[in-house]
Specification:
365 residues, alpha/beta, Four Helix Bundle (Hemerythrin (Met), subunit A), Rossmann fold, 2 domains, seven-stranded mixed sheet, four-stranded mixed sheet, binds 5-S-methyl-1-O-phosphono-5-thio-D-ribulose
């Protein structure tokens, strides 16, 4: 997508042909900075410290992390050690495991001197596939937005609520939940987005709002508790979120707070859709509440907030009494029964075992 007229992906190779460049998402929306990753340890840090985040981009960064590792040391021992280091960075997004498994399966049978080239080619392939997948999610979700707009008699505003950031910054390009919104906007549908701020790290306020603004999509940032009120007053036509892991039976794990939005949508008859690429489906589990590990992050993300002062400096301040404890659960699970449909690169399906199996027959056991 464009940043001030320049087209960007979220991860790419530098001109030297081997260094990996990323956008430092911890600096947005106040400054746009590119960071160079020169070894696997840097890729692992980028994922753990959320310089990059979002399930598909985490997978792409891990793939390039394996390529950087093969440049330094293509031994069997380093394939295993690098995979382990990358896998330890974040527990919830399943694309990480998917990408690391794919790289290991590619590299294991190769001789060490063939590994570097093969790893770079595969990592680039994973990125290109993600762009194609997200573009197709956009096309499939566009029809839903278009139909809802037509069904309402083509009003001058159609309202979509989203949570966290599932835009192009969370993927390699286009995004998952935001891809249909970009495509609808580009097709001339007057889409307006309610952007949940998404405490504690504010991915909605600092990332989703930023990228929508850069693309010219009308949007309004709201605090996380507003969605239910808006839905009660007919101000949300549909919700679209992303997901970090979806079970084979359609349970959706996504940023903390997604479940509460789905409950409010259910109570108010508002369709609740989830955009997801195939690699975000974990075919090994059915029960998301029981089986998906939920990342718990440092409590300073809850007790502190970062923002720009009127003087222009970016500062972090404490917002909780020093004597209070805090907890920081990063994700929750929305049961399939609350999800109206899953928007995938292969089409839209019911959030159910049968629905997913219909679109991915080769995966369903
Ligand atoms: O902790 P993050 O920022 O990596 O979590 C990302 C999300 O939960 C997003 O909502 C997203 O939908 C998943 S990635 C497209």
């Amino acid at each position: 997508m464009n940043v001030d007229g320049t087209p960007y992906r979220t991860i790419w190779l530098a001109e030297d042909g081997w260094t990996v460049e990323i956008i430092d998402q911890t600096k947005l929306p106040f400054s746009f900075e590119v960071i160079r990753l020169q070894d696997c340890a840097a890729a692992a840090t980028a994922i753990r410290d959320m310089w990059v985040r979002g399930a598909p981009l985490i997978g792409a960064t891990a793939a390039y992390g394996m390529a950087l590792a093969m440049r330094d040391d293509p031994s069997d021992a380093n394939v295993a050690a690098s995979a382990e280091a990358l896998m330890a960075t974040r527990p919830t997004a399943v694309n990480l495991r998917w990408a690391v498994d794919a790289m290991q399966a590619l590299l294991a049978p190769l001789s060490p001197n063939a590994r570097k080239k093969a790893a770079y080619i595969r990592a680039a392939g994973i990125c290109d596939e993600d762009v194609a997948i997200c573009s197709s999610i956009g096309d499939n979700g566009l029809s839903l937005i278009h139909n809802a707009w037509e069904a309402r008699g083509k009003p001058d505003r159609i309202n979509v609520l989203t949570h966290c950031n599932a835009g192009w910054l969370a993927t390699v390009d286009w995004g998952t939940a935001l891809a249909p919104i970009y495509k609808a906007h580009d097709a001339g549908i007057p889409v307006h987005v309610w952007v949940d701020e998404t405490r504690p790290r504010n991915q909605g306020a600092s990332l989703t709002a930023w990228e929508l603004e850069k693309h010219g999509v009308p949007h309004t940032v709201i605090v996380d508790n507003v969605g239910g009120h808006l839905m009660q007053h007919g101000l949300v036509d549909m919700c679209i979120t992303g997901t970090d892991r979806t079970t084979a039976s359609g349970d959706v794990c996504n940023k903390i707070g997604t479940y509460l939005k789905a409950l409010a949508a259910h109570d108010n008859g508002v369709p609740f859709y989830v955009g997801l690429p195939g690699p975000t489906i974990d075919w090994t589990i059915d029960d998301g509440v029981r089986d998906i590990p939920i990342e718990q992050r440092d409590i300073t993300e809850v007790t502190h907030m970062t923002g720009r002062t009127s003087g222009g400096s970016v500062e972090t301040v404490e917002i909780v009494s020093a004597g209070s404890n805090a907890a920081n659960f990063a994700f929750d699970v929305t049961p399939a029964r609350l999800v109206t449909g899953l928007i995938t690169e292969r089409g839209v399906c019911a959030a159910s075992k049968e629905g997913l199996a219909g679109l991915y027959p080769e995966q369903a056991g």
